[in-house]
Amino acid sequence: MSPEEKPGGPPPPPQAGRCRGARPQQQQQQPQPRRGGLLSEIRTAIRSEPFHLRYRLSPGRELGRGKFAVVKKCIQKDTEKEFAAKFMRKRRKGQDCRMEIIHEIAVLELAQCNLWVINLHEVYETATEMILVLEYAAGGEIFDQCVAEREEAFKEKDVKRLMKQILEGVSFLHRNNVVHLDLKPQNILLTSKSPLGDIKIVDFGLSRIMKSSEELREIMGTPEYVAPEILSYDPISTATDMWSIGVLAYVMLTGISPFLGDDKQETFLNISQMNVSYSGEDFDLISEAAVDFIKTLLVKKPEDRATAEECLQHPWLQQSDEPISRAWNESAGGESSDVTQPDADSASEKSVDAEKTEEDESIVTEELIVVASYTLGQCRQSEKEKATEQKAISKRFKFEEPLLQEIPGEFIY
Question: What is the CATH classification number for the domain harbouring 232?
């Protein structure tokens, strides 16, 4: 299903990235990016009256919290409609970051007509913070299903449907020269949990505008999801997001974070050396087409990765929802082989025979994968891990700090 125009949303910019299905509208000039890929102009009126005059906060736990922002559920008093209020501090580490918030607002405005991007309702400002009133996604993060036990976790047919929506949303952003740079399970929300709803892409605090006339280099992202070019400080591009989508697909299908090590340095080494496995019990019920889909994205050279539009045409997303189990090498006594992904584009590795002939390597212990996580714990534990559950849980929150000092913090919406 292609995104449609949201009722009442502002018109999209006059680019090839206009929403599919949207009626032709009067063209308007796209906001001009500031130095460093930030937008500086917004159309949304910033309200100065007290937030509590029109909204009341809902009791209960916060929807999300980061270093410089907190998200709370709120109710519009005159309509009783539910929203998510994102309270963002304007000063961070002694620096005025108001323009970074303005950029986030501008990106939300740019994507206002896309169904798969969270909708901005209105904006308030106080002396110390800005408040973004956003569409409320009642289903919460897809992260919860990623780390659930197998019975409650995503089925492959669910991942296929949600991945199509993610790719349509990201394709729209890329056509409008926006790179998200922090795509991960915590930044993909669901409109409802049961029945399983649609996705909403959130948190554009790290996003940047790409300009063909200049290169953009940034050290930012969440460690497990950053692309190799981030670590080597090479220019970023829309392909940087596609790497993160590959990791995201891996996590959604298996519950395992593919590059996670004992610490950030080991995780970065795993990414740089392409140490990723496509074997083990977590792949027993994953189709060969799904594995091939991931392999077209987890490619070291950005220019060799599939684009969002190419991914939407991949056989995995084009075939029926009937799950197809992977073929395994029965002659090897039921053991699977670990695969270290090569630097070159692996899109050609599509046959089952090629998969069967790859060299066997030692199986990476799942205990290593469970030891630590930077994003609230990425791993669904298997039966043999349950014995070490208490030890693992104590370390799940060990690495909450974002990658290096350039990252303003992790938060939802």
Answer: 1.10.510.10
